Amino acid sequence: MGFLDLFIVALMPILKTLIVTAIGLFLAMERVNLLGPVTRHHLNNLVFYVFTPALVASNLADTITSSNVVSLWFMPVNILLTFIIGSALGWILVKITRIPKHLHGLVISCCSAGNLGNLLLIMIPAVCIASNSPFGDSSTCITNGDAYASLSMAIVAVYIWTYVYNIIRASGSKRNDSITPGETSESLTDVTEPLVSKDSQRPEDYEAQAESPPTASEDKVPVLKKIQQHMKDFAEKINLKMLFAPSTIATLVGLLVGVITPVRKLVICDSAPLRVLESSATLVGYIALPLCGILVVKGANYFGLVGSDALYQFVLLLQYALPSAMAIGTITQLFEVGESECSVIMLWNYVVASLFVTLWTAYYMWLVS
Question: What H or E segment, with its residue span, contains residue 33?
């Protein structure tokens, strides 16, 4: 199949995405104002707490089984590599452009976390139903493609709410630590005063304490207690509570329902007594990185780590070429840091992606076919 035919196949899902984006842009215009600031805020909450978890859980439970989950073991590794390589490229970009420190996390996150869930759920079925698709029978392609896209969406949800959430949180805290030019010495005193106890030691006391030998009680501090304290400090810094965000909980639920056969028969099968639960949830519900993806996936294929399924290899490759995850915008709103900058990044990110994702999609299909 020629490259032009593959380009046309790759163009169809991108056009669908652009149409949906254009509708959203029209609704958000001031003249229409159906998606004003308040509406967008509540809509983000609905997406975070309802739509995304329902979409993740229903798709995982319906497509992932105990037999195919083992054969897809390389996908979590592949997505982790996209985050690692993307973070490295983002760090280089931060150093070159010298952007403000409180935006470092935003830039690195946009380079590392791609939209590996929602876009794949749109693109893969659209590619499968195309008349000149290189992946064979459309029904089989859609079934397998939904499984790959659902697992991808579930894994990236966990990575985003553990890694991206905490890196933006840590980066945004640097803005609070900086001093604005309008602050006076009195305000500085008010800020720093609670940090220093009235009974705090003077410099002379610290020098005397440094010279004195450690007491017996200090020597008897258990090593295990020190380790526990370090682990507690680490947990407080990265906020492990966000590991249990709604989307990650939905990931666990979907995997359990899909993998555990007795539960799957209760919920997923056509004659399942609880079939209504799954159907209801369904209703609710840059250039360097893609090149690195070719090296990773082709290397894994050479060593026999990903099997011979062309569609599976295509999904793994596509995970390196997608634009930034929209959840990053939700995270910036949670911390009220870099919201306007994130909007600008996302705008140009998706404008450029409309062309380059099409080209990369066509090239990846030619590469695996």
Answer: none
